[in-house]
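Structure tokens please, single chain.
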Amino acid sequence: MSETVTISTESSASTDPLRVVIAEDNTLLREGLQVLLERNEFAIAAAVATAEELITATREAAPDLVVTDVRMPPDFRSEGLTAAVRLREENPALPVVVLSQYVEQSYVAELLDSAGGAGVGYLLKDRVSDVADFADTLRRVHAGGTAVDPAVINQLINRRRDPLERLTPREREVLAVMAEGHSNAAIARRLVVSDAAVVKHVGNIMMKLDLPPNDDQNRRVAAVLTYLRGQEG
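Here you go.
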């Protein structure tokens, strides 16, 4: 794994294999991760495909460690990360490692702040290159350490004060028309783009403005308010 920032503690004295709950919606990745961990002397308490299954399996199995993806069914936004935050709220001593392709701004601060940052990790999949190092990182997190990919730290540090600065020019146009109260279909007609393109732009806007999954209308209102506050400056 490439230059992950780790804060280690003494490893557990127990010789029993750590019991892990895995949450990954991609079947091949889920089964591959399961095989990888079993070969490195972890025990799989459960391997699930959705955030709700993650919550249920963790409550029932009481694992030593949770490893979860970020974007999972049904909306593929931040369901896995949201579930991880929820589980840490219920049990701050539960070690959690987020293993994702993305640096998801929503909820990542809450996860890293939970329990003082002890027993938590956020790793990027494409930067995990050494299996033995990855397994060791999981053990360190279980022992109360912290493991955060430098790319995650950089994005958190470099987050701009004005969230609108993250938007592309086209996304700003979409948000401006949205602020006038228009529907997606009306936005598409105004900007002469397809309905599918508008849906994609709106999804990107919600993600970049760190608006958590919620009622879609409420999120649109929150996005518009963000836009209007930006125009005041």
